[in-house]
Design brief:
2 domains; 22% strand; 34% helix; globular; five-stranded mixed beta sheet; alpha/beta; 14 strands; Nucleotidyltransferase, domain 5
């Protein structure tokens, strides 16, 4: 049986999933990333991935036909490694996965947000679409773009880092140095700053707002208003058919999507009344593993 392996390497956890070529999930595993540790002279996360590969090979009666790895950072153009990832996941930068796993197995590597969008295109909320934007709302804001069926990578692989687009040119910088990016306006990392220390997590801010806390509701409305303005600009720039929103903040469901759609009613350019569909991501935390596997089998051009 031909099967595909998708690996999503996160900061604390590795998600691995085996798929048939038509997308049926055959098996899955979780393993610790063990960032900063080493094993047999190499990063511990390589050893963890190798163990997962061995386990699945035994379970499924043979090795995968192809494997894909999704990870933070900018992927090399040839898909062999993550070429730029400073500051965390020590040993990931310029690690050639096919060599590291020491098996005659084709391995394709791409950015984790790019992989998440490919996963949603293959088996999730954007299935069958050709013009899609993905935003992941969590600690920061990640993103990816498929335009006319092509994954936009850009010159260095920076394309899709939508969290760094400015919505307030007087605002504090994002980690990329751009002033007042949308991740500053709605990311989980800035909740304490936005609320004067009253809240430290988006879920607590949302819970207080739902309980009638007018201060919390005002902060939340301002954050969603900024997100809507951000999406209105993206719509003018990229003309997507659908925008998919994932990440932990998307789990607030109607508390996020109702005000977001309400604000877009006054901001979005809608020729002949056409509105861009806003949809919650369908694959949750497994989107990256899906996309990594699909990229290995049928890379998005």
């Amino acid at each position: 049986m031909e099967w595909l392996l998708g690996i999503d390497l996160g900061g604390t956890e590795i998600k691995a999933a085996a798929f048939t070529t038509d997308g049926a999930r055959l098996s899955s595993r979780l393993a610790p990333t063990r960032d900063g540790e080493s094993e047999n002279g190499r990063p511990a996360f390589v050893a963890e991935v190798a163990r997962v590969l061995d386990d699945m090979t035994r379970e499924l009666g043979g090795p995968p036909a192809r494997a894909g790895v999704a990870a933070p950072g900018l992927a090399a153009r040839d898909g062999s490694c993550i070429a730029f990832m400073p500051g965390r996941l020590h040993g990931l930068e310029n690690l050639h996965w096919q060599q590291a796993l020491a098996q005659p197995l084709p391995v394709s590597v791409l950015n984790d947000a790019h992989a998440a969008l490919l996963g949603e295109l293959w088996q999730g909320a954007a299935r069958g679409r050709r013009d899609v934007v993905l935003l992941t709302l969590g600690t920061g804001v990640g993103g990816a773009i498929v335009s006319d069926g092509r994954l936009l990578r850009g010159h260095l692989g920076r394309a899709g880092h939508l969290g760094h687009l400015t919505v307030d040119h007087h605002g504090p910088p994002t980690i990329a140095g751009t002033p007042g990016g949308i991740e500053v306006a709605i990311g989980n990392a800035t909740v304490a700053d936005r609320t004067g220390g009253r809240f430290t997590m988006t879920r607590d801010l949302a819970a207080a707002a739902l309980d009638g806390d007018s201060f919390a509701r005002g902060i939340w409305e301002e954050s969603v208003h900024a997100l809507a303005a951000h999406l209105a600009g993206i719509i003018c720039a990229l003309d997507p058919e659908i925008i998919v929103i994932g990440g932990g903040i998307a789990e607030l469901d109607d508390f996020l999507f109702h005000p977001l759609r309400r604000h877009l009613d006054t901001m979005e350019w809608r020729p002949r009344g056409h509105r861009v569909e806003i949809r919650k991501a369908a694959l949750g935390n497994w989107a990256g593993a899906h996309g990594a596997a699909w990229n290995a089998f049928s890379p998005c051009p």
